[in-house]
Please model this.
Amino acid sequence: MFDAILIEKDDAGYRANLQQLQEAQLPEGDVTVRVHYSTLNYKDALAITGKGPVVRKFPMVPGIDLAGTVEHSNNAAYKAGDQVLLNGWGVGENHWGGLAQKARLNGDWLIPLPAGFTAAQAMAIGTAGYTAMLCVMALERQGVTPGNGEVLVTGANGGVGSFAIALLSGLGYQVVASTGRPQESDYLKALGASDIIDRASLSEPGKPMVKERWAGVIDSVGSHTLANACAATRYGGAVAACGLAQGMDFPASVAPFILRGITLAGIDSVMRPRQDRIDAWNRLDRDLDRQLLERITQTVALKDIIPMARQLLAGQVRGRLVVAMDV
Model:
């Protein structure tokens, strides 16, 4: 038997509960992992609360991240005892995920745990940090360098935003953080933000183009925020868009793209090819200051996840929530 968060939907309604399950209940897969740590992401919170159409099959164990030890493998790439991690691939949506003490998975979805990280550190980073690194790499590919000027990070207090600030600052960029929680300014500056702006300055309908300011943008918010960020991006600049906390709409104009030649790069972390994942994690191993993980992260027990999901959606959680399975 093992503990898991199980989401069910039937005539009695939609509900998530901590339950004990049997290993025979695990879905099909060629690798069984003893999960040591997982995370609580925005998408997981939507799944647990039913506030968004994340779960595609029921019953479902949520959790888009996990790190643990292989217990059994029919995949040639892994053997019992190997340390592995997983981000995305529809886990927690279409296939049972990481918010459980055990998971059975397609081994092709796994990558080896980088030697420079413990399982707890890898989950402190999780999909949020991995996505932030993909965004940074996208800006680099478009030629955005520290000498080009300020880089805007929206949703700065969230997981992606926190890591984006830390990574960009560590690489020498001048980072401006957009947040709706000005009381968190000290936290954001400790991560490396040089300036803080109120998200209200970006979240309302704006003009197609405004005065140029941003050399680059990492946006996890979408909607008017993304449109306004594009409108103020400097000639030849780039915007990496990876989230939709404000909405899926994009009420923008083509003007910044045509008249200023800016690039909008969509960042998908879920179905990213294996080599891209390995490259991003290698960059995290190289570029991320481990001491910052303590500022970004709090560790919680699996039994506390359901109320924490509601707090996360209410904007009451800073940074990353790491879930320890054996606490």
About this structure: Residues 127-266 form a domain with the Rossmann fold fold (CATH 3.40.50.720). The two ends are 16 Å apart (CA to CA). The chain has a mean pLDDT of 95.
